[in-house]
Design brief:
Layout lengths: L11 H19 L2 H8 L3 H8 L2 H15 L2 H6 L5 H15 L10 H4 L10 H27 L8 H20 L4 H12 L6 H5 L1
Helix pairs in contact: 1-2, 1-4, 6-9, 6-10, 8-9, 9-10
């Protein structure tokens, strides 16, 4: 049954996509309920009925963003070598955060930068979300160490953190106006720090 106050023809996914853009551009704290409902084309009653309160809406927005806009991160993990995993991720990230049809930067970085609540729980929620991605990358890099694709003395956790620092830093610069070419130039330099494969070291 449609939620009370929901207008006929209400498309929850389309409305959520518009909410994502508001949160992306203005951050969680900066996005008012009026900003959100105006962009979504619904009233507050409809928003509460379909998505719950503002925080619940934001969590739904981040989940949808992770599923669609961050699909490249999951695809990168399937690459055959650690170098290819890292390069694919960083290149795709640079492209994603400079898309012409999206706000510059990254929702998971921009969304919580200005969050100033009593305990910063939105910022923590976003940090935890990013940490989950970092941990997934660390697991993949640990597999590369075990298989000899990376040198045995490689710290997969530290390497994964380094990769995420690069991607998150690029997101901040993209939001500040850096173009795609500049971000890929930073990726070029970052890739020089990726350890040579264990097989190459053995030669």
């Amino acid at each position: 049954m449609a939620g009370r106050g929901r207008p006929r023809g209400f498309d929850a996914d389309a409305a959520l996509d518009r909410a994502i853009e508001v949160f992306w551009r203005q951050g969680y704290e900066g996005a008012s309920l009026s900003d959100l409902t105006d962009a979504m084309g619904i009233n507050r009653t409809s928003m509460y009925a379909a998505f719950g309160n503002k925080e619940e809406l934001f969590r739904r927005a981040v989940a949808r963003y992770a599923l669609a806009d961050m699909a490249y991160a999951r695809e990168a993990l399937t690459q055959p070598t650690a170098y290819a995993v890292i390069e694919t991720f960083l290149r795709a990230n640079a492209d994603a955060i400079t898309r012409a049809d999206r706000p510059p930067g990254c929702l998971s970085v921009q969304g919580g930068l200005a969050e100033g609540g009593e305990n910063g729980h939105i910022a923590k929620f976003l940090a935890d979300s990013r940490l989950a991605g970092e941990q997934a990358l660390a697991v993949r890099l640990a597999e590369a160490v075990a298989s000899g694709d990376l040198p045995a003395d490689t710290d997969p956790v530290a390497l994964a953190r380094y990769v995420m620092v690069v991607s998150e830093g690029n997101a901040v610069h993209a939001a500040a106006g850096a173009d795609r070419r500049a971000l890929h130039a930073a990726v070029d330099i970052a890739l020089r720090a990726v350890p040579a494969s264990g097989a190459e070291d053995a030669d």
